[in-house]
């Protein structure tokens, strides 16, 4: 296995495309290369880079797809039935309820109707390729045959943003690597916002070839001097970009934060999580519609015998009805009765209510982005709202590698030019204005 650790702004996608094209020069006839990413945007980004390298058209033997599409189409769909006698007709994107203890039952209920929930894809694929504790000898014998078939056409798997791999995906990659399939993973454990820690664990395996890309093409060196204080020595970044600005501001000095943000015209303004003054839950109406529409597709067939086409049409109407009525302040219970014309289960009602309530923004709060939502983005003029929990990592009171430290690194590496760090009232109270100003004086 080959792991390439590339920090923020290092051109990971361009590097990935070049590595794929270079490796393809040694491809054996009939073999395929799979490049997997975690979002459709990432798939399109990599595809565009490959099209540039191949002058317009990606060779058919290079398949670029999301990790869920790859595992479902190439592993689960062709092989899961052979092992466990269960086949899936579709993948469900249904939002699961807020109570995690019911998730397993919700996934199981979908499975009984021939649908595999997207959250279960990596686990089911891991069962196919590695197995589960209840497997019998017959399962193991079939699995060996399945991996032999898979190896006959899969030559190399490339993983983009590999810091986002979960435990099941890690086991899948290790299994395929052991079976002789080449694995190249490109990512940055410093940006592991989920806190999985799996890329870091893989890179610490003595049998893994680890390379580092330390050059940053995004941030001025002035910014990197700050972010470099929280990274490992072999991941310290450098940049040829001079200039840039680091400004330190305090919430207590600014009478109207909302007006300040508007006046400064920040490209990105972000905080790790919302509080009683900053709101990060700006779900657009089309995002709400998408969630409601998929939920209706799951619920309505339980209460209707209509054809699939009619269910899709009715689900579309129902999602729009929920949005319209919520906008007008109508009671949710009345809309539910109108849509379903019967009493639905309490947990189903709770799912609908959760989607509606989660988009009720407090207009008195200042609306900014979450750090998680701006990962992968950049701007010339960025505002990082430094709360007390992240300040503990910046000022080195805490040093553990976890998702909070990753959020801090992401926040510090978004700007191409000017970075304003605004300390919240709580952060200033904990560390004092004098301490903060003295700390940042070494960078500004």
From TrEMBL:
<dbReference type="GO" id="GO:0000725">
    <property type="term" value="P:recombinational repair"/>
</dbReference>
<dbReference type="GO" id="GO:0043138">
    <property type="term" value="F:3'-5' DNA helicase activity"/>
</dbReference>
<keyword id="KW-0378">Hydrolase</keyword>
<keyword id="KW-0547">Nucleotide-binding</keyword>
<dbReference type="GO" id="GO:0003677">
    <property type="term" value="F:DNA binding"/>
</dbReference>
<protein>
    <submittedName>
        <fullName>UvrD/REP helicase N-terminal domain-containing protein</fullName>
    </submittedName>
</protein>
<dbReference type="GO" id="GO:0005524">
    <property type="term" value="F:ATP binding"/>
</dbReference>
<dbReference type="InterPro" id="IPR027417">
    <property type="entry name" value="P-loop_NTPase"/>
</dbReference>
<keyword id="KW-0067">ATP-binding</keyword>
<keyword id="KW-0347">Helicase</keyword>
<dbReference type="InterPro" id="IPR000212">
    <property type="entry name" value="DNA_helicase_UvrD/REP"/>
</dbReference>
<dbReference type="Pfam" id="PF13245">
    <property type="entry name" value="AAA_19"/>
</dbReference>
């Amino acid at each position: 296995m080959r792991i390439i650790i590339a920090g923020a702004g290092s051109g990971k996608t361009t590097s990935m495309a070049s590595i794929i094209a270079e490796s393809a020069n040694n491809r054996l006839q009939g073999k395929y290369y799979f490049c997997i990413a975690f979002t459709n945007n990432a798939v399109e980004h990599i595809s565009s880079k490959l099209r540039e390298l191949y002058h317009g058209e990606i060779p058919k033997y290079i398949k670029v797809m999301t990790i869920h599409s790859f595992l479902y189409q190439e592993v689960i769909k062709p092989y899961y039935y052979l092992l466990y006698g269960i086949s899936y007709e579709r993948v469900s994107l249904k939002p699961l309820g807020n109570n995690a203890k019911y998730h397993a039952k919700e996934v199981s209920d979908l499975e009984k109707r021939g649908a595999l929930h997207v959250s279960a894809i990596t686990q089911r694929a891991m069962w196919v390729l590695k197995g589960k504790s209840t497997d019998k000898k017959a399962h193991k014998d079939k699995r060996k045959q399945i991996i032999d078939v898979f190896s006959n056409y899969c030559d190399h798997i490339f993983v983009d943003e590999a810091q986002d791999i979960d435990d099941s995906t890690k086991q899948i990659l290790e299994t395929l690597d052991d079976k002789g399939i080449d694995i190249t993973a490109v990512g940055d454990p410093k940006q592991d916002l989920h806190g999985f820690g799996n890329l870091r664990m893989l890179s610490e395996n003595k049998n893994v070839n680890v390379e580092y890309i330390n050059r940053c093409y995004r941030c001025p060196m002035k910014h990197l001097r700050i972010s470099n204080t929280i990274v490992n020595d072999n991941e310290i970044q450098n940049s040829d970009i001079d200039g840039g600005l680091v400004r330190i501001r305090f919430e207590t000095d600014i009478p109207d934060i909302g007006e300040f943000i508007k006046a400064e015209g920040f490209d990105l303004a972000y905080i790790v999580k919302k509080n009683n003054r900053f709101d990060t839950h700006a779900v657009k109406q089309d995002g709400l519609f998408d969630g409601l529409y998929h939920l209706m597709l799951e619920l309505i067939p339980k209460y209707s015998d209509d054809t699939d086409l009619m269910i899709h049409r009715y689900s579309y109407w129902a999602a729009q009805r929920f949005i319209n009525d919520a906008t007008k302040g109508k009671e949710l219970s009345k809309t539910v009765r109108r849509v379903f014309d019967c009493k639905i289960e309490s947990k189903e009602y709770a799912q609908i209510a959760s989607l509606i309530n989660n988009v009720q923004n407090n207009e008195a709060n200042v609306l900014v982005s979450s750090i998680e939502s701006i990962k992968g983005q950049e701007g010339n003029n960025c505002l990082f709202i430094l709360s007390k929990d992240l300040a503990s990592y910046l000022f080195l009171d805490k040093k553990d590698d976890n998702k909070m430290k990753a959020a801090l690194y992401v926040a510090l590496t978004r700007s191409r030019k000017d970075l304003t760090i605004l300390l919240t009232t709580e952060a200033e109270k904990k560390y004092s204005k004098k301490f903060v100003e003295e700390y940042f004086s070494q960078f500004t």
